[in-house]
Amino acid sequence: MATRNVAILMFDDVEVLDFAGPFEVFAVTSELSKGDSLRDSFASRPFAVSTVAEHPGAVNARNGLSVNPHCTISDCPPPDILIVPGGQGTRQLINNSAVVNWIKDCAPTAELVLSVCTGSLLLAKAGLLEGLAATTHHLALDLLRELAPNTTIIENQRFVDNGKIITSGGISAGIDMSLHVVGKLLGTAQAEQTAEHMEYRIGNYESS
């Protein structure tokens, strides 16, 4: 099994559960997939999860949590799965051409591009939601409509799967979306095992 690189974008004022929830899902899935031997543990690891920021150094997430990303957008391994979380910081980041262009440049070669909460605003700014359906945090639906006038905005849905581009609603919905992706790539049994280990209510992630 080839290991997929999962890159989670980090920035100041990122919502904590937006990035920590998906991080936990993909990391736990890899942990549970380890074989008995050292060789098996590397061969069977489905995901290598890393956090990536624009610049080196700590990122100040919501409510004062300091996080040290693994790498920067200039030295990050090409992501197979790109995750763009949300939070108040997205309002400033949509005007950051370096980050928006990095998302845009990663998208063509990524297998999947995911957003959590208002991370969808950055996907919209990068032009990745054109002609698709998408969702976001319920308090940011109108803002997403402004940024993505050619996108069908879906309300009251945990996540929306367009195939390659998947967007989720607010905060905890990123866990549902991530479990859905695990099931999509590795099978329902693996997603259920991850959800059970996390003691997350099995079945939540099945809603699309």
From TrEMBL:
The keyword Lyase appears for this protein: yes
SUPFAM superfamilies found in the cross-reference section: Class I glutamine amidotransferase-like
Uppermost EC category: lyase
Enzyme Commission identifier(s): 4.2.1.103
Any one GO MF annotation of this record: cyclohexyl-isocyanide hydratase activity
InterPro entries in alphabetical order: Class_I_gatase-like, DJ-1/PfpI, INH-QAR
Key words, A-Z: Lyase
Species for this entry: Microcoleus asticus IPMA8
Record Gene3D superfamilies: 3.40.50.880
Name listed for the protein in its UniProt record: Isonitrile hydratase
Keyword Lyase appears in the UniProt entry: yes
A Pfam family recorded for this sequence: DJ-1_PfpI
Ranges for domain DJ-1/PfpI: 5-182
Domain of life: Bacteria
